[in-house]
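Q: What residues go here?
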């Protein structure tokens, strides 16, 4: 099994029958030397051993938006450092409050934020050399939203190789 982020990100068919893919972008520091994330500058990504990122946007039932960000690193330590930096960034910048849910990978967190036009969930986890993030914006705050985002995240987790 491969460790490439594009092979780990879910296609619309894998995500569910009511999902359509809006866009997908795959990049490396070679292809985009100025790449950075909210929580990490290019220098951080280089230091942590970032190797590839896959960014895709899915639309569920023409109304709910799901963004996948799958980043692969050279080793587990790089993915762990990126995960910790992301958790700190989300908590410090008002991305919501922690919500109880299932556990994914080696460590995970789910944040929920209610907004005037719906509710946003940010679920991040890391496993081996992969740091995965899902951001879902649901138009309605329903009890099964948490179940849905974990269902998608579990599919991603199962695609991550156990051995690097």
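A:
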């Amino acid at each position: 099994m491969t460790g490439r982020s594009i092979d780990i990100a879910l296609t619309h068919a894998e995500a569910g029958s009511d999902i359509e893919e809006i866009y997908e972008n795959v990049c490396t520091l070679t292809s985009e030397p100025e790449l950075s994330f909210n929580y990490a500058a290019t220098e951080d990504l280089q230091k942590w051993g970032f190797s590839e990122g896959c960014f895709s946007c899915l639309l569920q039932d023409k109304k709910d938006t799901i963004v996948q960000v799958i980043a692969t690193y050279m080793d587990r330590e790089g993915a762990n450092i990126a995960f910790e930096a992301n958790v700190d960034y989300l908590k410090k910048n008002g991305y919501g409050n922690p919500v109880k849910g299932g556990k994914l990978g080696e460590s995970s967190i789910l944040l929920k934020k209610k907004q005037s036009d719906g509710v946003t969930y940010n679920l991040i986890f890391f496993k081996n050399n992969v740091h995965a993030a899902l951001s879902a914006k649901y138009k309605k705050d329903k009890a099964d939203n948490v179940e849905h985002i974990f269902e998608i995240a579990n599919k991603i987790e199962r695609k991550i190789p156990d051995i690097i």
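A: Context that may help when evaluating the design: Helices lie at 5-8, 12-15, 42-48, 76-92, 144-159. Residues 19 and 60 are 4 Å apart (CA to CA).
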